[in-house]
Amino acid sequence: NAINAANAGADATSKIVFTGNITIIGASVLPNPNKPIEIDTQGFFLRSIQSGAGVGHANGRMLTLTGTYWGQAVVGSGTTGFNQTGTSAASMIGNNGSIIGGNSPGRGGGGTGVSLAGLASFINNGSITGGTAINAGTGGVGAYVRNGSPMINYGTIQGGTNSGTGGGGAGIDLGGAGA
Question: Is the pLDDT assigned to residue 176 strictly greater than 80?
Fold first, then answer.
């Protein structure tokens, strides 16, 4: 795993560069970085089949996402493009690319673009979009933010659309403790 190799390296920072598309199947929490790391998909993508690729926490380090990250199209509801779930250590995450929730080709809703359910400071310099609902569901939320996580936006955050009979998704859903 490239993040584990970067963590073990002697350099103060690391950059992981894709040489092809990566699809994560099953449990999709990536290893937590223990130093500042940039993940650059370099024209390729990171796609998550189940709950959305992401990290528990970044151990107080900066994790920079460059390139394309997207959830999977799933009948029922699309998956999340990128998750951050840990509440034991604050994360700092930057997006310089495109994060997209998975589309829903069935009757469910589009997937969330970014879910910050843990403790995270998130800086968006790119685009975050909820997934599209193809039939009767609602478009996915662009960014789902909980636990008082600050989100600074210099880019675009938008909810997913609907090409059927449902509505569009919210751009940002703020709530929960600390909102």
Answer: no
Pairwise CA distance, residues 114 & 74, whole Å: 17
For residues 145 and 79, what is the distance between their CA atoms, to the nearest angstrom?
A: 16
Span 20-31, pLDDT tens digits? 998 887 655 678
- Taking the C-alpha atoms of residue 64 and residue 8, their distance in angstroms, rounded to an integer, is 18
**What percent of the chain is helix, strand and coil (3-state, nearest 5)?**
5, 40, 55
Which pair of tokens denotes residue 20?
């092809």
Contact criterion met (CB below 8 Å) for 118 and 86: yes
pLDDT of 155: 98
Please tell me which residue, 34 or 154, carries the higher pLDDT value: 154
